[in-house]
Amino acid sequence: MGRENYRHLASVYDRLMESAPYDRWLQWTEAQWSRMGVQPRTVVDLACGTGTLTWRLVKTGRTVIGVDRSADMLAVAAGKEGLRHGAGSAVQWLEQDMRELILPRQADAVVCFCDSLNYLLTEEDWKRAFEAVHKGLAPKGVFLFDIHSPYKIADVLGDQLFAWEEADVYCVLNNQFDHECGIVNQALTFFVEQRDGKYDRFDEWHRQRTFPVHTVVKWLEETGFSVQSVSADFEIEGEPKENSERLFFAAQKR
Protein backbone atom coordinates (compact mmCIF):
# COMPACT_ATOMS: atom_id res chain seq x y z
CA MET A 1 0.00 0.00 0.00
CA GLY A 2 1.36 3.40 -0.95
CA ARG A 3 2.10 6.07 1.62
CA GLU A 4 -0.38 8.37 -0.10
CA ASN A 5 -3.21 6.05 0.95
CA TYR A 6 -3.05 7.49 4.47
CA ARG A 7 -3.00 11.16 3.49
CA HIS A 8 -6.69 11.74 4.14
CA LEU A 9 -7.21 8.89 6.59
CA ALA A 10 -4.65 10.34 9.01
CA SER A 11 -6.75 13.45 9.63
CA VAL A 12 -9.84 11.48 10.68
CA TYR A 13 -8.28 8.22 11.89
CA ASP A 14 -8.62 8.89 15.61
CA ARG A 15 -12.28 9.78 15.31
CA LEU A 16 -13.01 6.60 13.37
CA MET A 17 -10.94 4.51 15.83
CA GLU A 18 -12.34 6.07 18.99
CA SER A 19 -13.74 2.74 20.19
CA ALA A 20 -10.64 0.70 19.24
CA PRO A 21 -9.39 -1.50 22.11
CA TYR A 22 -6.09 0.28 22.79
CA ASP A 23 -6.31 -0.38 26.53
CA ARG A 24 -6.85 -4.09 25.86
CA TRP A 25 -3.81 -4.18 23.57
CA LEU A 26 -1.73 -2.63 26.33
CA GLN A 27 -3.14 -4.98 28.98
CA TRP A 28 -2.48 -8.01 26.79
CA THR A 29 1.06 -6.79 26.14
CA GLU A 30 1.85 -6.27 29.82
CA ALA A 31 0.33 -9.64 30.73
CA GLN A 32 2.29 -11.41 28.02
CA TRP A 33 5.56 -9.79 29.07
CA SER A 34 4.88 -10.85 32.65
CA ARG A 35 4.04 -14.39 31.54
CA MET A 36 7.31 -14.56 29.59
CA GLY A 37 9.30 -13.15 32.52
CA VAL A 38 10.56 -10.04 30.71
CA GLN A 39 10.36 -6.34 31.52
CA PRO A 40 11.55 -4.51 28.40
CA ARG A 41 12.99 -1.04 28.82
CA THR A 42 13.05 -0.07 25.14
CA VAL A 43 9.95 -0.83 23.07
CA VAL A 44 9.23 -0.30 19.38
CA ASP A 45 5.62 0.34 18.36
CA LEU A 46 5.74 -0.87 14.77
CA ALA A 47 3.10 0.53 12.38
CA CYS A 48 2.20 2.91 15.19
CA GLY A 49 -0.24 4.98 13.14
CA THR A 50 -1.34 8.08 15.03
CA GLY A 51 0.47 6.95 18.16
CA THR A 52 -2.44 6.24 20.50
CA LEU A 53 -0.88 3.01 21.79
CA THR A 54 2.61 4.52 21.57
CA TRP A 55 1.79 7.17 24.15
CA ARG A 56 0.16 4.58 26.40
CA LEU A 57 3.45 2.67 26.34
CA VAL A 58 5.34 5.87 27.20
CA LYS A 59 3.18 6.30 30.30
CA THR A 60 4.45 2.93 31.58
CA GLY A 61 7.88 4.55 31.95
CA ARG A 62 9.54 2.82 29.01
CA THR A 63 11.61 4.31 26.22
CA VAL A 64 9.48 4.04 23.08
CA ILE A 65 10.21 4.31 19.37
CA GLY A 66 7.21 4.81 17.08
CA VAL A 67 7.61 3.54 13.51
CA ASP A 68 5.21 4.03 10.62
CA ARG A 69 5.54 4.35 6.86
CA SER A 70 3.08 7.26 6.70
CA ALA A 71 4.47 10.73 7.38
CA ASP A 72 0.89 11.99 7.77
CA MET A 73 0.14 9.47 10.51
CA LEU A 74 3.42 10.27 12.29
CA ALA A 75 2.67 13.99 12.18
CA VAL A 76 -0.58 13.36 14.06
CA ALA A 77 1.22 11.06 16.51
CA ALA A 78 3.96 13.59 17.25
CA GLY A 79 1.29 16.24 17.82
CA LYS A 80 0.08 14.29 20.85
CA GLU A 81 3.17 15.20 22.89
CA GLY A 82 0.87 16.76 25.48
CA LEU A 83 -0.45 13.29 26.35
CA ARG A 84 2.86 12.51 28.01
CA HIS A 85 2.13 14.80 30.98
CA GLY A 86 5.75 14.54 32.08
CA ALA A 87 5.66 10.74 32.34
CA GLY A 88 8.42 8.88 30.55
CA SER A 89 10.72 10.15 27.85
CA ALA A 90 9.86 11.68 24.50
CA VAL A 91 9.13 9.33 21.62
CA GLN A 92 11.52 8.93 18.71
CA TRP A 93 9.47 8.79 15.51
CA LEU A 94 10.79 6.93 12.46
CA GLU A 95 9.20 7.00 9.01
CA GLN A 96 10.00 3.50 7.78
CA ASP A 97 8.44 0.54 6.04
CA MET A 98 8.36 -2.44 8.42
CA ARG A 99 10.01 -4.58 5.74
CA GLU A 100 13.00 -2.23 5.79
CA LEU A 101 13.11 -1.50 9.51
CA ILE A 102 16.43 -0.06 10.71
CA LEU A 103 16.53 0.97 14.35
CA PRO A 104 19.08 3.35 15.90
CA ARG A 105 19.77 0.66 18.50
CA GLN A 106 18.47 -2.80 19.31
CA ALA A 107 15.24 -2.86 21.28
CA ASP A 108 14.07 -5.17 24.05
CA ALA A 109 10.62 -5.58 22.51
CA VAL A 110 8.64 -4.86 19.36
CA VAL A 111 4.85 -4.71 19.26
CA CYS A 112 2.75 -4.54 16.09
CA PHE A 113 -1.01 -4.44 16.58
CA CYS A 114 -4.24 -3.47 14.85
CA ASP A 115 -3.72 -6.10 12.10
CA SER A 116 -0.92 -4.03 10.55
CA LEU A 117 0.90 -7.10 9.22
CA ASN A 118 -2.16 -7.97 7.15
CA TYR A 119 -1.27 -5.13 4.79
CA LEU A 120 1.67 -7.23 3.61
CA LEU A 121 0.36 -9.30 0.73
CA THR A 122 3.09 -11.83 -0.05
CA GLU A 123 5.12 -14.48 1.74
CA GLU A 124 8.26 -12.55 0.84
CA ASP A 125 6.92 -9.38 2.47
CA TRP A 126 6.02 -11.16 5.71
CA LYS A 127 9.43 -12.83 5.87
CA ARG A 128 11.22 -9.55 5.19
CA ALA A 129 9.28 -7.89 8.02
CA PHE A 130 10.06 -10.75 10.41
CA GLU A 131 13.74 -10.63 9.47
CA ALA A 132 13.89 -6.86 10.00
CA VAL A 133 12.24 -7.16 13.42
CA HIS A 134 14.57 -10.02 14.39
CA LYS A 135 17.60 -7.93 13.45
CA GLY A 136 16.27 -4.95 15.42
CA LEU A 137 15.75 -6.91 18.63
CA ALA A 138 18.35 -7.45 21.33
CA PRO A 139 19.18 -11.07 22.27
CA LYS A 140 16.09 -12.70 23.82
CA GLY A 141 14.05 -9.73 22.63
CA VAL A 142 10.28 -10.20 22.38
CA PHE A 143 8.00 -9.70 19.37
CA LEU A 144 4.25 -9.40 20.03
CA PHE A 145 1.71 -8.88 17.26
CA ASP A 146 -1.81 -9.60 16.12
CA ILE A 147 -3.36 -10.36 12.73
CA HIS A 148 -6.79 -10.99 11.28
CA SER A 149 -7.68 -14.66 11.17
CA PRO A 150 -8.56 -16.35 7.87
CA TYR A 151 -12.14 -16.56 9.16
CA LYS A 152 -12.32 -12.80 9.71
CA ILE A 153 -10.80 -11.90 6.35
CA ALA A 154 -13.13 -14.20 4.40
CA ASP A 155 -16.35 -14.27 6.43
CA VAL A 156 -16.47 -11.11 8.56
CA LEU A 157 -14.81 -8.56 6.28
CA GLY A 158 -15.38 -10.50 3.05
CA ASP A 159 -17.86 -8.99 0.61
CA GLN A 160 -19.32 -6.60 3.14
CA LEU A 161 -20.23 -2.94 3.39
CA PHE A 162 -19.55 -0.96 6.58
CA ALA A 163 -20.26 2.64 7.54
CA TRP A 164 -19.20 4.97 10.36
CA GLU A 165 -20.67 8.35 11.18
CA GLU A 166 -19.16 10.95 13.50
CA ALA A 167 -19.98 14.61 14.07
CA ASP A 168 -18.07 15.87 11.04
CA VAL A 169 -17.07 12.78 9.09
CA TYR A 170 -18.90 9.94 7.37
CA CYS A 171 -16.99 6.90 6.15
CA VAL A 172 -18.03 3.97 3.96
CA LEU A 173 -15.92 0.82 3.64
CA ASN A 174 -16.75 -1.42 0.67
CA ASN A 175 -14.98 -4.79 0.77
CA GLN A 176 -14.48 -7.19 -2.13
CA PHE A 177 -12.94 -10.56 -1.30
CA ASP A 178 -10.81 -12.30 -3.92
CA HIS A 179 -11.28 -15.99 -3.18
CA GLU A 180 -8.45 -17.08 -5.47
CA CYS A 181 -5.66 -15.14 -3.76
CA GLY A 182 -7.29 -14.59 -0.36
CA ILE A 183 -7.01 -10.80 -0.51
CA VAL A 184 -9.76 -8.46 0.62
CA ASN A 185 -9.80 -5.28 -1.47
CA GLN A 186 -11.14 -2.32 0.49
CA ALA A 187 -12.50 0.91 -0.96
CA LEU A 188 -12.73 3.68 1.64
CA THR A 189 -14.83 6.76 0.94
CA PHE A 190 -14.78 9.71 3.35
CA PHE A 191 -17.08 12.70 3.50
CA VAL A 192 -15.45 15.30 5.75
CA GLU A 193 -17.18 18.49 6.81
CA GLN A 194 -15.29 21.70 6.04
CA ARG A 195 -15.46 25.06 7.80
CA ASP A 196 -18.11 26.34 5.41
CA GLY A 197 -20.38 23.41 6.31
CA LYS A 198 -19.86 21.65 2.99
CA TYR A 199 -18.48 18.12 2.75
CA ASP A 200 -15.40 17.12 0.75
CA ARG A 201 -15.12 13.57 -0.54
CA PHE A 202 -11.89 11.57 -0.34
CA ASP A 203 -11.22 8.03 -1.55
CA GLU A 204 -8.54 5.54 -0.55
CA TRP A 205 -7.92 1.91 -1.47
CA HIS A 206 -6.50 -0.69 0.89
CA ARG A 207 -5.74 -4.42 0.58
CA GLN A 208 -5.32 -7.02 3.32
CA ARG A 209 -4.31 -10.65 3.38
CA THR A 210 -3.71 -13.20 6.10
CA PHE A 211 -2.21 -16.67 6.43
CA PRO A 212 -2.94 -19.75 8.58
CA VAL A 213 -1.43 -19.96 12.06
CA HIS A 214 0.89 -22.85 11.15
CA THR A 215 2.29 -20.86 8.22
CA VAL A 216 3.01 -17.77 10.33
CA VAL A 217 4.62 -19.92 13.04
CA LYS A 218 6.80 -21.62 10.40
CA TRP A 219 8.02 -18.28 9.05
CA LEU A 220 8.79 -16.99 12.54
CA GLU A 221 10.80 -20.08 13.41
CA GLU A 222 12.68 -19.97 10.10
CA THR A 223 13.59 -16.36 10.86
CA GLY A 224 15.10 -17.24 14.24
CA PHE A 225 12.21 -16.76 16.64
CA SER A 226 10.92 -19.17 19.24
CA VAL A 227 7.12 -18.96 19.28
CA GLN A 228 6.00 -18.79 22.91
CA SER A 229 2.25 -18.70 22.39
CA VAL A 230 -0.55 -18.27 19.87
CA SER A 231 -3.90 -17.15 21.24
CA ALA A 232 -6.94 -15.25 20.05
CA ASP A 233 -9.18 -12.30 20.82
CA PHE A 234 -7.09 -10.89 23.70
CA GLU A 235 -6.83 -14.19 25.59
CA ILE A 236 -3.41 -14.78 27.15
CA GLU A 237 -3.57 -18.54 26.69
CA GLY A 238 -5.68 -21.05 24.79
CA GLU A 239 -5.75 -22.23 21.20
CA PRO A 240 -7.56 -20.09 18.62
CA LYS A 241 -10.97 -21.38 17.57
CA GLU A 242 -12.31 -21.74 14.05
CA ASN A 243 -14.32 -18.53 14.44
CA SER A 244 -11.66 -16.52 16.30
CA GLU A 245 -11.27 -13.14 14.66
CA ARG A 246 -7.98 -11.73 15.93
CA LEU A 247 -4.91 -13.94 16.36
CA PHE A 248 -2.17 -13.00 18.82
CA PHE A 249 1.44 -14.18 18.61
CA ALA A 250 4.22 -13.98 21.19
CA ALA A 251 7.70 -14.79 19.90
CA GLN A 252 11.19 -14.46 21.34
CA LYS A 253 14.47 -14.01 19.52
CA ARG A 254 16.64 -17.10 19.82
UniProtKB/TrEMBL annotation:
One of its GO terms (molecular function) is transferase activity. Keywords: Transferase. Residues 43-141 form the Methyltransferase domain. This is Methyltransferase domain-containing protein. The lineage of its organism: Bacteria, Bacillati, Bacillota, Bacilli, Bacillales.
